[in-house]
Every structure is written in C-alpha cells, then in structure tokens.
Specification:
Elements lengths: L10 H18 L7 H11 L3 H13 L1 H9 L1 H6 L15 E5 L4 E6 L8 H4 L9 H9 L1 H7 L9 E6 L5 E5 L11 H5 L4 H5 L11
Parallel strand pairs: 1-4, 2-3
The structure holds fe (iii) ion.
Length: 208
C-alpha cells in the first residue's frame, strides 16, 4: 500500500534539474542575473517567514477587535502590526484569514498549484504542492486530517479553502487552553506553520 503522500524517489532531483535549466535559460536570455534567484529566496527565507504569521495569530488571540478585523479585512489588520515591509507585496496579494472556532476547523489548500501567503507563512512546504495531498484534501478532508493526527469531533464542520491568486488564505488556529495571561511572544511560539494551514492545531503548552 502506498503512503498518503507518496511520490517518485527522484522527484526532488528532477525538480532541481528543471529549475537549473530554467534559471540558466533566463540568465542566458538576459531576463535575470546570476544573483536574482538567490536574492528572492533569501528575502523569503529571512524576512517573509512564519514568524509574521505567528505574530498575527498571537495578536488575534489577545485582541478580539483585531481578530474581527482580520476575519473581514486581513490586509488592514496586518498593516496595524510592526511587520517587515512588503507584507502586501509579492505573493501577499489578497490575503485572507479564516478563524477556527469550536465546531469549525478550517483547512487551506491550492487545488490548482501551490498558492500560498508567502509573507505570512514563508515558502510553501514541499507536501503542500503534492498532487496527492491536494486532491485528497479536496475530496476527503476529514480522512486526511485524521491521518495527520488532527482531532476532530464528529460534529465539527471542516471548511476547505482553495487558495488562488485572488485569495491567499491562512488559518488562525484556536488558542490552546491553559495560556491565560500569556504574553504575545509566549503565545506566538505555540503557532506552527502547519496550524496556520489547518493540518494541525496550535501546540499545547508544555506542562510546568
Ligand atoms: Fe496555486
């Protein structure tokens, strides 16, 4: 039996070879320079990272007004925080947030390709682009979430959001119990990238 998200063992090498060929062609044609790709990757690995999403979620947990604005106008809410320039720029257009609540669990996928709110969550994880994950998460989200270990009550509604160039969704997970009085920095440390995609819950506090 194959694993849920299996793919050819040489897939990463194949992808890398395709990227190298494409990059070489673009340099040869004068479209980009030798440093362009490294600069873009560096930007999305150092400034546009899940740390931004963690801060957004932590603020939503402590500030109901911010959470309400985030749900209705995510770019306006994000603009209120002290985050790096460019949150609304490349791959951050049309940000939209969906908030988990008791009885409602949200899951974000891109059925078409890999649309993702890069400024909020960083570069999309490898599995997010996996055709098997994308297809199964659309068809049988409950089964996929159960396999991934997300606890779902039978009466919890699962809402699947299909990201695109017109809406880049991210999830605000529920605030874990036992975090009353925590600072935003403490809370942010519980917010994983997976929880902001909806394939996990926020971490629970370690016992003291
Ligand atoms: Fe896409």
């Amino acid at each position: 039996m194959s694993t849920p998200f299996s793919y050819p063992s040489d897939r990463e090498e194949q992808s890398a070879a395709q990227v190298r060929a494409l990059e070489a062609l673009l340099i040869e044609k004068g479209v980009i320079t030798h440093t362009t790709v490294d600069k873009v990757l560096g930007y999305f690995e150092s400034e546009m990272t899940p740390l931004n999403g963690q801060k957004i979620v932590a603020r939503a947990w402590v500030d109901p007004d911010f959470a309400a604005l985030l749900a209705t106008d995510a770019p306006a809410a994000v603009a209120q925080l002290d985050l790096p320039d460019g949150m609304a720029g490349a791959e951050g257009e049309h940000l939209a947030a969906v908030l988990n609540e008791p009885g409602v669990h949200n899951l974000v996928i891109c059925t078409l390709c890999s649309c993702f709110p890069w400024p909020v969550l960083g570069l999309p994880p490898y599995w997010y682009k996996d055709p098997v994950f994308r297809a199964r998460a659309a068809r049988e989200p409950r089964a996929v979430l159960t396999e991934l270990g997300v606890p779902l009550d039978d009466d919890t509604e699962v809402r699947v959001w299909d990201s695109s160039g017109h809406s880049r969704w991210f999830v605000v997970p529920e605030r874990p119990a036992g975090t009353e009085g925590w600072t935003e920095d403490q809370l942010a440390a519980l917010v994983t990238t997976e929880s902001m995609i909806g394939v996990a819950l926020a971490d629970v506090p370690a016992p003291v």
